[in-house]
Amino acid sequence: CSIHSMCRQINGCYNKVDALFTGTQGRVWDERRIARFDKAEVKLPEVDGTDKSYVQEHVDLQTAILKGEKINEAKQVAESTLTAIMGRISAYTGQMVQWDDLMNNKDSAWYGLTLSPSADDFESGGVTLPEEGVAAVPGE
What we know:
33% helix
């Protein structure tokens, strides 16, 4: 199986987040659009719940509450966020960024990063917005 994923966030450009999964029998893209290589009909199984992730989160939460169970996805959310941050740093700098660089390697340029600008920066008026229509160039 291979996965092709892309995302663009540049002013004045066509912006889209998309993924294409290609396996031995076919492809899946655009929220469950499926095509088999042999053109056979694809029947999706009926499942309880919803295909809308935010709605499903609430279904799962309410179900857990009613059953007296606990849901804690903080670790998965934090790790997913860090993975996205690593990808952004790599795309903007053109450098390889590894998990260890952000989490453990105190000699890494990426270790101990904080969000910038901060709320205090906005309050003090010290935020200068980037030029409109100028895209980040990897390595600069």
